[in-house]
Each structure stands twice: as structure tokens, then as C-alpha cells.
Amino acid sequence: MLKNLTNIVRSNQNAVMVRVGDKNSAVYTIFDLKTQTNTYTGTLNATKKAWNKHYRNSRQFVTKSGSNHRFLGA
């Protein structure tokens, strides 16, 4: 039953974004792992904007050969 009420939407080493409630009446919140607090709570759109501004990873992933993974197919 609890699985239907709380779902992890996004997560990384900085924070976890969680949906609380069912899809029709959901509230989204971001739990900051450094401060151990809920920093943002609101609608999906507002919480996604906060995630992209404050918590998304800014690292560029690189393969063993040192090339950027985004351009491997090019």
C-alpha cells in the first residue's frame, strides 16, 4: 500500500525527488541529502525546475579512452 503512496522520481548523490500520493493528487518534494531536509515541495513542474536549478548533476561523463560519451556515435 505504501508503494502506491510514495515513489522516487529522481535521485542522485545530491538529493532525492519523491512523489507523495497518487497521480491525481500528488505532491512532489526534494529531500536534500547534505542538509537532511525537504528543501522544495510543490507541483511536478515547480519541483522539476528546482531540481534542474539546484540538484542536477553537472559532471561530464567520460569513457575510458577519454572521449565524451555524447559524441561517441558521431
Describe this structure in words.
With 74 residues, this protein is an alpha+beta fold. It has one domain. It contains two helices and four strands. It has a four-stranded antiparallel β-sheet. Strand 2 (15-20) and strand 3 (27-32) form a beta hairpin. The N and C termini lie far apart (46 Å). The mean pLDDT is 78.
List the helices and strands and how they pair.
Elements: H1 2-5, E1 6-11, E2 15-20, E3 27-32, E4 37-42, H2 44-54
Antiparallel strand pairs: 1-2, 2-3, 3-4
In short:
The chain is 20% helix and 32% strand.
Percent range for β-strand residues:
25-35%
Estimate the global geometry from the Cα principal axes: globular
Return the domain count.
1
Described by strand count, sense and barrel closure, the largest sheet is: 4 strands, antiparallel
The number of E-state strands comes to 4
Helix segment tally: 2
Oligomer: single chain
Helix- and strand-based class?
alpha+beta
Element order: H for helix, E for strand: HEEEEH
Query: How far apart lie the N and C ends?
Result: 46 Å
Strand order, largest beta sheet: 1-2-3-4
What is the mean pLDDT? Answer: 78
Helical content class: 10-25%
Radius of gyration, in angstroms, nearest whole number: 16 Å
Low-confidence stretches: none
